[in-house]
Predict the 3D structure of the following.
Amino acid sequence: MICSRSARCGRPKGRRCSAWQWPAGSTRRCRRARSKASGFDVNDQALNLSTEAFAKLARERLRAEPPALGDLIARPRGDHENQPQPVPVPDEKRAVPAAVLIGIVPRQAGPTVLLTQRAAALRNHSAQVAFPGGRVDAVDGSPVVTALRETEEEIGLSRERIRTLGFLDAYLTGTGYRIVPVVALIEPPFSLAINHHEVDEAFETPLSFLLDPANHKREGREWKGHFRTYYAMPFEGRYIWGATAGMIRNLYERLAG
């Protein structure tokens, strides 16, 4: 399904700006911000991995178990990080629990990541690029069950084709969610049945593009009276940004670290 550019890109609403300044006295952080103003740091290296190499590295470096609520060792990631002004860390216990599937698809030309374009008619996060996933139901029992169930409901992908590799740290969003990213392999061949009440389409993006920090742009806009920055990874007319891009960045940091 081909959407209009405005719908397809799913760009954030509000005043946008690609340049910003750290407050006075933040010299060290200012240098860091400038070195990453375009999303690229000279010390970052692109990860161009085969499916086998990705799976091996994921098993070695990702969490083997989902991050527990209130885990003193795990540090939740999220929209509150790397902001020009200090932002309080959201209370995990008050956040809405959710889970998403970061699905890696083995392809002959190289592995890809399965993403969706949320339906333009949705009330929240309409037309945005997202991972399949959603809120945790009381009967789910684990983030894996949530991610698999939501993926099946949204795009009709059978859970029998999905093999879990590990988990990222929880991601706290500015809209009040605590998301557990489930990283997995999706084994071809598979067929999809799009639920157009939730998703306009599903598509694949090369993993090599998403794991190249040169493509991790740092952009910003005014939101609720404050200037906020976020990761953005534009790809072939699609605007991958916000929590989705943030989780991709976290995946890169885990694998590259």
Q: What stands out?
A: The domain at 48-81+95-256 is CATH 3.90.79.10 (Nucleoside Triphosphate Pyrophosphohydrolase).
